[in-house]
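User: We ran a pulldown and think these components assemble together. Before we commit to crystallization trials, I'd like a predicted model of the whole complex to look at. Sequences follow.
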Amino acid sequence: MYTQALDSSGAEPGSPASAGEVERERRFQERIDRDEKIEPKDWMPQAYRQTLIRQIAQHAHSEIVGMLPEGNWITRAPTLRRKAVLIAKVQDEGGHGMYLYSAAETLGVSRGELIEQLLAGRAKYSSIFNYPTLTWADIGAIGWLVDGAAIMNQIPLCRCSYGPYARAMVRICKEESFHQRQGYEIMLTLARGTGAQREMAQDALNRWWWPSLMMFGPGDAESVHTAHSMRWKIKRFSNDELRQRFIDLTVPQAQFLDLAIPDPVLRWDEAAQHFITGPIDWSEFQTVLKGHGPCNRERLGARRAAHEAGRWVREAAAAYADKHRDRVGGAERHVQTV
Amino acid sequence: MSAAAGSATPASDEDHFRYVLRLADTSLVLGQRLSEWVGHAPALEEDLALGNIALDLIGEARLLLAHAGRIEGRGREEDQLAFLRDAPEFYNVALAEQPNGDFGATIVRQALLDAWQLELYHSLTASTDERLAEIAAKTLKECRYHWRFSCGWLVRLGDGTAESHARAQEALDALWRFTEELITPDALDVRMASCGIAPPLAVVRGRWETRIGAALGEATLLQPSSEHYPWHGKSGVHTEHLGHLLGEMQHLQRTYPGVTW
Ligand SMILES: [Fe+2]
Ligand SMILES: [Fe+2]
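Assistant: Here's a predicted model for the assembly, 599 residues in total across the polymer chains.
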């Protein structure tokens, strides 16, 4: 996944137009309060729809863009087993993108439109994927930390009020936890390996730790939409709560690897029963979010290049389907749906 | 099946090893090529399909490499065989190592090889090498799915727009010269057929030509002439592309010798 609570733009709940509207919203909220699932054909406030479209689209784009940094190591995976596992993992992420685009389509926006927004630079995706994968250990670190943070964000979404999104998340979460374990296993192998492998693992942790914490989005004080999203049960825990859970779970895992978390002031607070980290550099987060991260250009560039290079192929498929529409059972017997 | 010849002469382990490596290396190198597409295909569905085919091919290669290693009997396992041989010791057919090019070139390469693997593995299910016959039975199912995909796209590209037709024809013209190697037996193919481990390549040739001929017809593509330079990838004489592919694939194993990943 990689939902990142971006919470920085989009529709605000508007003022209801009429008494009838007020009544409908009241009944809608009652359904949500009773933990009923909202389904595509049900009435929903425009702002609820827009918030969901924005969030699901960001999530879908993150899955697709997220294929790139890990895909970068497929051809260089160190063993055939690792290569096969990595291909399957990246495929899973593509599959997640597909379910999520389908979930967004139930809200009345097509995959094509959403992809146009991404390629035009008008849509967001998780900023973690704008960091480079420089060594094989980065593949371990991404599975461990990035999929790990994604799970933390997504488990609550399995109970999200919007049915199609919640159901997509159930399926996705199962695969993400598999990815997380595979990533950790790569880290463990490196951490128990040669000196060079340990260094590689430590370096990857150094580079991915802080960006992973940023995946949960800005601190609660700065987070714009949390209140509405909470009331609608699109979001069930605040960014800071989820981040803290991730930290508390992950620090002992790093200790087990005997790797150092790159935070000189990290400490266990006995009273609070939490690990307390040093301050997160939110200026870095904003820089990456605005498009100036290490690989923003490369990631969007790669998506655009694939889209452009594929145009003639998509046109050919459409032309072929047109020509043979009347002749199904002829040539089309070979052809799978585009 | 014709592979099980009546008067079988036993194969030398060296021949047997080399022959299984030919099969393994063709799947491995083609899988490696296809995996380059992951994240970059024309649409999400094609991205997933190309990745799935790459996964199948790498899975086949792993089984075959492990089998080759056992035949060789020197304790080499799949990763030593995949990552620690240089290009002249790879025996894949040269078509498999050709660069992806555009989606059309990838589809043409894939269809030519899928049709060949489909017919070859169909025959290999009757191999006198029982382990190879088992692997062939599993592989055959995958080959059918791969061919459905590549043939489906070959037809759509060939009979799609003027641009897609031109691109597919151009790719076919460029790659056709590598097909002779698939269907022309060399001395090792002949020895393998005589002991029943492999089918006579003439059988595969006939079926491959029929299958490809029909697909090209449906795709409205012209079969190029058969004048060619004889490539011998399966004897270890490759195009310039294989060395680069291996350089990338083997980079970690070569840089950090002997470690566990
Ligand atoms: Fe995912
Ligand atoms: Fe994942």
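Residues 44-72 of chain B form the longest helix (29 residues). That may be worth checking against your pulldown data before setting up trials.

User: Thanks, that helps.
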